[in-house]
Amino acid sequence: MSKNIVQDTFFVNHERLIALMKRESDIRFAGGPLGVLWAYLPPLFWIGLVALVFYVLKSPLPIMTEPALFVATGILPYAIFRQGITSMMRSIKVNRLLPLLPEVTKAQCLLATAILEWLTSIMLAIFIFGGVSLFFSVPFPGNLFTVCVALTVAWALGVSIGALFASIGQVSDTFSRSVPIILRPLFWISAIFYTVSQVPSSIQTMLSYNPLVHIIESLREGYFLGYTSPVSNLIIPVSTILFSIIATIYVEAWIEEKKANRHL
To answer: Please, what are the averages of pLDDT over each run of 10 residues along the chain (264 residues)?
Structure first.
């Protein structure tokens, strides 16, 4: 059964995939330009709010740069990660009837959603980092490749965990409703508006178990020349991504087997 899920995901007709992506885009950005604008407002709001706090309090930054840029390097990967989870869980719900059509599967719907999120993440990163750099006249990333890798891993972590949560949510509506509550503390324990080097070593050890911390710290190493983090190992989030994908395959296989046994 798990083999069929893998085949349905990676061997999908391109035209069908594009059609699914267009449908997902129409749902995600309903309302035309205002819908697209809404996708950018939440991260912009948080970047502006937290940066304003730094400006008002005149708090020293751990990295010599503009507060808006420092905050953006933390909030952007967090926003990409959270939106990936939200979109994947929504995709299962809004597309629940599509698998009844011939040659359309849940895996293909999730793949279309994941690709759309990747494209949206690219545009969001260009818009935010480009806008902040031009408005405040700060340098562009010191190592663009490292920044791109970190943002890609943030996207992959979000959509992979989102796919797992979406699968589990099919058998537990209580779990689906509890996901936002479970994820809420991540805003405070992911080194978004501080760096890992600023906290005691005992707390650094605790933060190192959070894959999102490794992504944010790795992004900052790539963006700010000379910055070195004590915690920036992308193997941690990549391992989490692989685990989430494998777990999703097994959960989906279990769900399909349970449905098949019900009709025996």
So the answer is: 48 73 75 67 85 86 91 95 93 73 78 92 92 89 95 97 94 90 92 93 94 97 92 96 96 84 64
Residues 94, 200: Cα–Cα separation, whole Å: 45
Q: Mapping DSSP to helix (H, G, I), strand (E, B) and coil, where does residue 11 land? A: coil
User: What is the token pair recorded at 145?
Assistant: 């490749």
Give long-range contacts, CB 8 A cutoff, 24+ apart: 40-48: 40/124, 40/127, 40/128, 42/79, 43/75, 43/76, 43/79, 43/124, 43/128, 44/128, 46/71, 46/75, 46/79, 47/71, 47/72, 47/75, 47/76, 47/128, 47/132
DSSP annotation string for 18-64 = HHHHHHHHHHHTTTTHHHHHHHHHHHHHHHHHHHHHHHHHTPPPSSS
Q: How far apart, in whole angstroms, are the C-alpha atoms of residue 60 and residue 163?
A: 39
DSSP classification of residue 233: -
Is the model's pTM score more than 0.70? yes
Q: Which amino acid is at 92?
A: I
pLDDT of residue 93: 82
Separation in Å, CA 245 to CA 30, 95, 110, 121: 29, 20, 12, 20
- Whole-number pLDDT of residue 2: 47
Closest CA to 66 of 137, 127, 171: 137
Q: Number of helices and strands (H, E) in the chain?
A: 10, 0
Predicted local confidence at residue 42, as pLDDT: 81
